[in-house]
Amino acid sequence: MATPAEVLQILGKLGIKGVSRVRCRVMDGKDKDKILTRNVVGPVKRGDVILLKETEMDSEGRLQKR
Prior knowledge:
CATH 2.40.50.140
């Protein structure tokens, strides 16, 4: 089930394929009001509502011990 999230900030563009890094706030579900950073494909602007497949935190490679 998809969870709606509002785009708060666009952090930047990644590559040439139309991928943007955005910060968004979850609007519904068990993680309501959680702020996440996600990659979004396609045109997006501040205030848009996107649908997230999952709301768990990304595993950051730089935070893991190697």
